[in-house]
Amino acid sequence: MLTYQDLYEFVRKEKFGETLQPLPKKFVEQVSSYLKEKRAESSQEGDLFLDSVGEAKKQLENAIALFKELMLRRKKKILHLVFVAAETGIMKRDYEQMLEFEKEMFDGLVKAVEKGDKVMQDRLQGKGKDDVSKGSGLKMILFEQEAEEFVDAEGKSVGPFAAGELANLEGGVAAVLVEGGKASFVDAEG
């Protein structure tokens, strides 16, 4: 059973430790049980327990504040780890010290930062916003006009295509043909 002193110690270690500090696997559940117990104690009425009820209310408020501080400190450390992982590709530092929901958050943030970096790189290489968003995957298009043989973004020869012909082309190439009026998207996504 978690105590107020345990919670205080976890916060103290997190505050002064450079790395993420280990927490029990069911830490959040333990905190939840502790807070439930303190809420029950603080809601009791009666003159006999007046001092202990007031003490329980104060401990409840302090425990909530400590838990919030602990989670905030851990989030800051995790965000720092996300930036390190995105820049270096090394993701395992402190990973084993994370709680399950923190691991999910970390993985999601790393993917988001990497995706943002890829978009930035694409734009630096001259691809516009539309090219980046439409450029992923193959798109089915219907040619409305004849199209001569051309070279795609990877340097491969594509075509020629007759009017009315269907083709499954890379998204960026398909977008250029549609915007140029030579074809239209067949799939609903466009």
Question: Strands, helices and their partners?
Answer:
Blueprint: H1 4-16, H2 27-43, H3 50-88, H4 100-124, H5 129-134, E1 138-143, E2 150-151, E3 157-158, E4 166-170, H6 171-179, E5 183-185
Antiparallel strand pairs: 1-4, 1-5, 2-3
Helix pairs in contact: 1-3, 2-3, 3-4
Q: Give the overall shape.
A: elongated
Report the total helices: 6
Order of helices and strands: HHHHHEEEEHE
Q: Which architecture of the largest domain does the CATH hierarchy give at level 2?
A: Up-down Bundle
Please bin the fraction of helical residues.
55-70%
In short:
Helix content is 57%, strand content 9%. The chain has helices at residues 4-16, 27-43, 50-88, 100-124, 129-134, 171-179; strands at 138-143, 150-151, 157-158, 166-170, 183-185.
Describe this entry's structure for a reader.
The protein is mainly alpha-helical and 190 residues long. 57% of the residues lie in helices and 9% in strands. It has helices spanning 4-16, 27-43, 50-88, 100-124, 129-134, 171-179; strands at 138-143, 150-151, 157-158, 166-170, 183-185. Strands 4-1-5 form a three-stranded antiparallel β-sheet. A two-stranded antiparallel sheet has the order 2-3. Strand 2 and strand 3 (157-158) form a beta hairpin. The chain starts with a helix and ends in a 5-residue tail after the last strand. 15% of the residues are buried. Residues 131-135 have low confidence and may be disordered.
